[in-house]
Amino acid sequence: MNNISFSLVVAVASVSISAIAQQTKTPNVVLIMTDQQRADLCGREGFPMDITPYVDSLAHQNTWFDKAYTVAPASSPARCSMFTGRFPSATHVRTNHNVLDVYYRKDMVHVFKEKGYKTALVGKNHSYLKPTDMDHWIEYGHWGKSVKNKTEGEKKLANFLDKDARGQWLEPSPIPLEQQQPVTIVNEALDWIKTQENPFFIWVSFPEPHNPYQVCEPYYSMFAPKKLPQPRTGRKDLARKSEKYQILAELEDDSCPDLQKDLPRLRGNYMGMIRLIDDQVKRLIETLKAEGKYENTIFIILSDHGDYCGEYGLIRKGAGTPESLTRIPMVWAGAGISKQQKPMEAHVSIADIFPTLCTAIGADIPVGVQGRSLWPMLTGKSYPKREFSSMIVEQGFGGEDFTREEPLSFQKEGAFTPNKIAHFDELNTWTQSGTQRMVRKGDWKLILDNYGRGELYNLKKDPSEISNLFDNKKYVAKQSELLQEALVWNLRLQDPLPVPRHRYSFIQNPYNYHFKD
């Protein structure tokens, strides 16, 4: 064999070995999502009760964020943005009723499949994805498992959730722990994972801690009303919030006449559900550790949006963009993730999940994606601080604000079902109309609507956003700074799709960064 031939063989062999080595290192991805979990109810953020002990420990051994935000405080807009990396103004999914209008070029599932991944959903969907998009699909909802041929246990659970507990449930749940949805979802997720060779992607999506806030023992008693810290705010503070909050309060009181009396128990149930989920996340991840899959798997734990959980005397979501609704838990763990005992300083978004995973698996970020890759910071490498110095949240489906003066009742609109407790839709014409943008930068937060009405808060001093400092002369410089930040974000989020068809070159940073320093 001559030198040229020998060199060629060595080169080919080297490439093959390198390709095999790269393939064996291709990480699995487990995306764990809750529905309607506010970020501050956890030990790592100082909550005094043992509500998320496992995820707290995982966060301190890996990387976590305390300035992570949804793109909009509603399920479908948030979930569609997570899979496309695009904000609601670009996906066109600004409400839970616009899923079919989704607009994008290439999404997360497409990229995973192009890279040879097997894909699965076990749990809640509420996005544009369909069963045919995944290799494996077991869907759950707030009213039970979405299958035709249910087992007797699944029928019992669905009947309880859909009829008895549909609005809210104040007593210990009659559904035993082994039949609670977080438990069966983890069971079925583990069953599928055990059949997989590398690489795989699975979306483990819990419908809880969303209403109807039902939870069984022992979790029901863990967070009894007398044990709970009191909310920082109540109904008396609604006078300092916008009309939409007050309209939502009227709707909740019409639907739940005893809401203020029941609120402590509902808060306790909500926290119990979070603890139940925490235990199931532990079972999922520790099982994969025992099977040797942890080191080659990226885990992301987050929620789609938050819940008032008693803030302003309200439950669920609906009005405005307060921290209780917009800020979400976000923890990254496993393959390649560096240890950060303190939360990252960066302001990040649920829209950053997709581009981050693109980088992690060696794929290009598709054109049209607006989120940024967090992979450099997650792996301990340098990143531009300016890029992550602020974050924006969108809210509203547009048009003029719908007010009390409009000739439409809650009942006629469909937001209220008479004679049934807690049968109301908080995401309605009143709360979702108009347009609002929220910008967080450090300890400060600006909210601006399409009428030019503004709110400015110092979150360190005023975490519940009661003292509005907008147009206060003392803070004119800070207000101007955040207004400029909001304008930059709105210009940045103008959708580039479709890109020019001829001649022009489109420039995109490999990590989708806008700022370089």
UniProtKB/TrEMBL annotation:
InterPro entries: Alkaline_phosphatase_core_sf (IPR017850), Sulfatase (IPR050738), Sulfatase_N (IPR000917)
Signal sequence interval, chain numbering: 1-21
Regions annotated as coiled coil: none
GO molecular function: arylsulfatase activity
Modified residues annotated as 3-oxoalanine (Ser) in this record: S75
Family to which this protein belongs: Belongs to the sulfatase family.
Protein name, as recorded: Arylsulfatase A
Organism (species): Bacteroides faecichinchillae
Lineage: Bacteria, Pseudomonadati, Bacteroidota, Bacteroidia, Bacteroidales
